[in-house]
């Protein structure tokens, strides 16, 4: 068995050496070198082809720049570039094959190393087995020399034979393992042979393709040479034809040149004439700018003089027009005064943030640049014009507004009854016009300041007493704003002296002597007035406010006594319930406000149409304004309008009502004056307070408004006076 194992080991070693000689790493390296040489040869051939192509391209570009075969040449160049790309792809494939051959070479080197290791291990195993075999032989020989110990030797041999059997088994298993390794190596070698064969086939295919490309390049090169030769022949033929045509044309040109020379000889006199004409025209053209400048200068002077004359004429006409306009306005005002018409002023408030943004907040009102009494309203796409006595734009100040009404205010000192009331929708600025703010007061406070100024200017000849009352009409109930109980309802009655005038019993009347007194009265009245917040106005007046100023005067030299009354009315704003969002008590207030304003409209309609009966008693408002609307008063209505697009309906109604009011004639106004003998100033003044009161304190002058005798102070008026003194 040991000999058999040795023989098998020798056979395996021979097989390994044979395989190494047949498919060793040297053959793969040789094959790789062959492929590399083939690749290098192909590269050189490709470079040579490229050089030939470049040479052909240069030859083609030089003589055939404008040749008719340029497109075909471009196609061949494109084909050549395609072949070059394919050659590049072949180069890439060859590089991949080189890499694959290198990998296979590395794998063969690894297999060789593994085979060397296996052979070394087999040699060691053989040497070990040979040593054991020699030991066994020596033992057998020694046993043969000792026959008397056969039994024991046999046993010993048997024991040694068991060990040998075990070693034999181990060597057999080791041999089987080595055989398996050799089988695996053979399988790997077969796979590598197959891969090598496939790479050889791929290389053969690549060589065939390269040969095909070379043949195609040669064919293309031959075609290009043929085409270039044909183009060269065609070029020569075209050159000969062009040369012959040029010779014919040159002959014709020479003939034409001879004819032109003869024509030039005949045209020289005409040319001299044309030159002379040209020089004269040139001189005229040179002198033309000067003539043109002179003409333009004179024309500009004439036009400027005409324009200046037109401007002077226009200025004169405009001056005359404005003068006539002022005279017309003055005559109109005088006519209005004589007729007793109600004068109507319009005031447009500016756009505010409460109006919002967008189309609804756009300005719908425009003004006439030449007439300050005309106002234009754009309503539903149509322009409606209104003519009033005066229109104040949004930028008009409180001072400008008061300058137009101060003549009416001063006539109160002369003994006339004057009424100024503000009308318009809620949020249009009525309260601002009448009352204003502390920094910018309205008509009320400015009127009283003007009265004080006029009184001081006439103090040398006249003695005046000014008293103030404040009331409101809230839900058709007349309330005293300066009384101790503002919620108490008052009634309007006729004076018992038979004068036919109206007065309000119980209405508190305060004597004022300075601006401080006025501020105290106004502050106390504002506290009691009804104002609430609605959707249309954050501080909406919910009542009609009346400030009644009575001026009594005495001329010390003649004994003439005058009594004038100034009614300053801030009407509550007309509103649509749907827009204002009024509910509950606000709704009831709005209904009463609209009812009283409707009654005012009925009174205006009756006065305008000269009806026999005027419904003054349909409302507390119209009943209280009866003296101002019945022809015994100078009356001015200040209509307040909003310029916002969303309020055009209310603005239209207000302006239409203003035009109707403007057409009402109340008749001439009478002056309240009579001769009387007043022993002292104290009879003019109403009873003062207790002896301890200071002289400048505002004191109530009586309980009745326009009553025949002031009487004694009531307890309520005294308490109000104490409040005013405390506030002072």
Automatic annotation (TrEMBL):
<keyword id="KW-0965">Cell junction</keyword>
<keyword id="KW-0472">Membrane</keyword>
<dbReference type="InterPro" id="IPR001752">
    <property type="entry name" value="Kinesin_motor_dom"/>
</dbReference>
<feature type="coiled-coil region">
    <location>
        <begin position="189"/>
        <end position="245"/>
    </location>
</feature>
<dbReference type="GO" id="GO:0005524">
    <property type="term" value="F:ATP binding"/>
</dbReference>
<keyword id="KW-0963">Cytoplasm</keyword>
<keyword id="KW-0968">Cytoplasmic vesicle</keyword>
<dbReference type="GO" id="GO:0003777">
    <property type="term" value="F:microtubule motor activity"/>
</dbReference>
<keyword id="KW-0067">ATP-binding</keyword>
<comment type="function">
    <text>Minus-end microtubule-dependent motor protein. Involved in apically targeted transport. Required for zonula adherens maintenance.</text>
</comment>
<keyword id="KW-0493">Microtubule</keyword>
<comment type="similarity">
    <text>Belongs to the TRAFAC class myosin-kinesin ATPase superfamily. Kinesin family.</text>
</comment>
<dbReference type="InterPro" id="IPR027417">
    <property type="entry name" value="P-loop_NTPase"/>
</dbReference>
<keyword id="KW-0206">Cytoskeleton</keyword>
<dbReference type="GO" id="GO:0005813">
    <property type="term" value="C:centrosome"/>
</dbReference>
<dbReference type="GO" id="GO:0007018">
    <property type="term" value="P:microtubule-based movement"/>
</dbReference>
<feature type="coiled-coil region">
    <location>
        <begin position="2"/>
        <end position="146"/>
    </location>
</feature>
<keyword id="KW-0547">Nucleotide-binding</keyword>
<keyword id="KW-0505">Motor protein</keyword>
<feature type="binding site">
    <location>
        <begin position="424"/>
        <end position="431"/>
    </location>
    <ligand>
        <name>ATP</name>
    </ligand>
</feature>
<dbReference type="GO" id="GO:0005871">
    <property type="term" value="C:kinesin complex"/>
</dbReference>
<feature type="region of interest" description="Disordered">
    <location>
        <begin position="674"/>
        <end position="728"/>
    </location>
</feature>
<dbReference type="GO" id="GO:0005912">
    <property type="term" value="C:adherens junction"/>
</dbReference>
<dbReference type="InterPro" id="IPR027640">
    <property type="entry name" value="Kinesin-like_fam"/>
</dbReference>
<dbReference type="InterPro" id="IPR019821">
    <property type="entry name" value="Kinesin_motor_CS"/>
</dbReference>
<dbReference type="GO" id="GO:0008017">
    <property type="term" value="F:microtubule binding"/>
</dbReference>
<protein>
    <recommendedName>
        <fullName>Kinesin-like protein</fullName>
    </recommendedName>
</protein>
<dbReference type="InterPro" id="IPR036961">
    <property type="entry name" value="Kinesin_motor_dom_sf"/>
</dbReference>
<keyword id="KW-0175">Coiled coil</keyword>
<dbReference type="Pfam" id="PF00225">
    <property type="entry name" value="Kinesin"/>
</dbReference>
<feature type="domain" description="Kinesin motor">
    <location>
        <begin position="341"/>
        <end position="664"/>
    </location>
</feature>
<feature type="compositionally biased region" description="Basic residues">
    <location>
        <begin position="719"/>
        <end position="728"/>
    </location>
</feature>
<keyword id="KW-0597">Phosphoprotein</keyword>
<dbReference type="GO" id="GO:0005874">
    <property type="term" value="C:microtubule"/>
</dbReference>
<dbReference type="GO" id="GO:0030659">
    <property type="term" value="C:cytoplasmic vesicle membrane"/>
</dbReference>
């Amino acid at each position: 068995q040991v000999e058999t194992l040795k023989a098998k080991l020798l056979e395996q070693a021979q097989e390994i050496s044979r395989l190494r000689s047949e498919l060793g790493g040297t053959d793969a390296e040789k094959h790789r070198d062959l492929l590399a040489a083939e690749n290098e040869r192909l590269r050189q051939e490709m470079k040579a082809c490229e050089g030939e192509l470049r040479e052909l391209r240069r030859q083609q570009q030089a003589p055939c720049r404008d040749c008719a075969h340029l497109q075909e040449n471009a196609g061949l160049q494109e084909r050549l570039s395609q072949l070059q790309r394919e050659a590049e792809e072949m180069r890439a494939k060859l590089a991949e094959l080189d890499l694959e051959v290198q990998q296979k070479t590395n794998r063969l080197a690894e297999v060789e190393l593994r085979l060397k290791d296996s052979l070394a291990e087999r040699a060691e195993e053989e040497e070990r087995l040979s040593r054991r075999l020699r030991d066994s032989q020596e033992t057998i020989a020694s046993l043969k020399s000792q026959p008397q110990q056969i039994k024991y030797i046999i046993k010993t041999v048997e024991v040694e034979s068991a060990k040998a059997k075990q070693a034999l088994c181990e060597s057999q298993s080791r041999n089987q393992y080595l055989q398996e390794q050799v089988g695996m190596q053979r399988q790997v070698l077969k796979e590598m042979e197959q891969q090598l064969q496939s790479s050889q086939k791929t290389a053969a295919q690549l060589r065939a393709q390269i040969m095909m490309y070379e043949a195609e390049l040669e064919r293309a090169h031959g075609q290009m040479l043929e085409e270039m030769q044909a183009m060269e022949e065609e070029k020569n033929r075209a050159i000969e034809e062009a040369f012959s045509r040029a010779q014919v044309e040159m002959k014709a040109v020479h003939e034409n040149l001879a004819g032109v020379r003869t024509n030039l000889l005949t045209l020289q006199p005409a040319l001299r004439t044309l030159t002379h004409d040209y020089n004269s025209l040139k001189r005229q053209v040179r002198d033309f700018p000067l003539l043109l400048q002179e003409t333009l200068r004179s024309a500009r002077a004439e036009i400027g003089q005409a324009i200046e004359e037109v401007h002077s004429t226009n200025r004169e006409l405009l001056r005359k027009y404005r003068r006539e306009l002022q005279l017309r306005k003055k005559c109109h005002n005088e006519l209005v005064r004589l007729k007793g018409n109600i004068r109507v002023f319009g005031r447009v408030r500016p756009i505010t943030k409460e109006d919002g943004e967008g189309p609804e907040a756009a300005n719908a009102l425009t003004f006439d640049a030449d007439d300050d009494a005309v106002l234009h309203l754009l309503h539903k796409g149509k322009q409606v014009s209104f003519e009033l006595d005066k229109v104040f734009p949004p930028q008009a100040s409180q001072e400008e507004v008061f300058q137009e009404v101060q003549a009416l205010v001063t006539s109160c000192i002369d003994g006339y009854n004057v009424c100024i009331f503000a009308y318009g929708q809620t949020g249009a600025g009525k309260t601002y016009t009448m009352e204003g703010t502390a920094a910018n007061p309205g008509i009320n406070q400015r009127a009283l300041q003007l009265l004080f100024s006029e009184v001081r200017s006439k103090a040398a000849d006249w003695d005046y007493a000014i008293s103030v009352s404040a009331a409101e009409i809230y839900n058709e109930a007349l309330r005293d704003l300066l009384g101790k109980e503002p919620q108490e309802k008052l009634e309007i009655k006729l004076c018992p002296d038979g004068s036919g005038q109206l007065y309000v019993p119980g209405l508190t009347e305060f004597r004022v002597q300075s601006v401080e007194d006025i501020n105290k009265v106004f502050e106390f009245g504002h506290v009691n007035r009804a104002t609430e917040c609605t959707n249309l106005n954050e501080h909406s007046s919910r009542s009609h406010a009346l400030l009644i100023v009575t001026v009594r005067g005495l001329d010390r030299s003649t004994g003439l006594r005058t009594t004038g009354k100034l009614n300053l009315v801030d009407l509550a704003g007309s509103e649509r319930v749907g827009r204002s969002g009024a509910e509950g008590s606000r709704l009831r207030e709005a209904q009463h406000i609209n009812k009283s304003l409707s009654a005012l409209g009925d009174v205006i309609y009756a006065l305008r149409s000269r009806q026999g009966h005027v419904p003054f008693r349909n409302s507390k408002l119209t009943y209280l304004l009866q003296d101002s609307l019945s022809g015994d008063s100078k009356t001015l209505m200040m209509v307040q309008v909003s310029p916002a697009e969303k309020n055009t309906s209310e603005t239209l109604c207000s302006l239409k009502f203003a035009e109707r009011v403007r057409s009402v004639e109340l008749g001439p106004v009478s002056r309240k004056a009579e001769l009387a003998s007043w022993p002292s100033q104290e009879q003019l003044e109403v009873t003062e307070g207790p002896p301890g009161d200071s002289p400048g304190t505002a004191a109530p002058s009586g309980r009745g408004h326009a009553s025949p005798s002031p009487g004694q102070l009531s307890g309520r008026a005294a308490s109000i006076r104490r409040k005013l003194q405390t506030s002072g």
